[in-house]
Amino acid sequence: MCNYLHEEVLKLLAQHGTSYAKPMNSQEIGEILKVTPSYIRSQLSQLVKIRQVGVRRGNGGGYYLMKKGLQNGTS
C-alpha cells in the first residue's frame, strides 16, 4: 500500500517533528516535494486510514506522524 510518496512524506513529517500541536499542512508538504496540495491530501488519506499519519482539521490544521507506541497501547 505504501509508495515512494508515502515514504517521503513520512520522512518529512519525522524531520519536522510534527505532532497534533504542530502539524504540517498539504501546502507546505507539496511545496517541499514539488507536488500539488490536492494530490498530497488524496495520497495521505491512505496513511490516515491505516493510522500512520494523523490529521488535525480546521484552521492551523495539517498532518502529523502518529507515535508508534500509542498505536500499540505502549509508550
Automatic annotation (TrEMBL):
Source species, domain of life: Bacteria
Q: What is this protein called?
A: Transcriptional regulator, BadM/Rrf2 family
Q: Which InterPro entries match?
A: Tscrpt_reg_Rrf2, WH-like_DNA-bd_sf, WH_DNA-bd_sf
Q: Which Gene3D superfamilies match?
A: Winged helix-like DNA-binding domain superfamily/Winged helix DNA-binding domain
Entries under SUPFAM superfamilies matching the protein: Winged helix' DNA-binding domain
Q: What species is given as this protein's source? A: Pelosinus fermentans JBW45
User: What's a Pfam family this protein contains?
Assistant: Rrf2
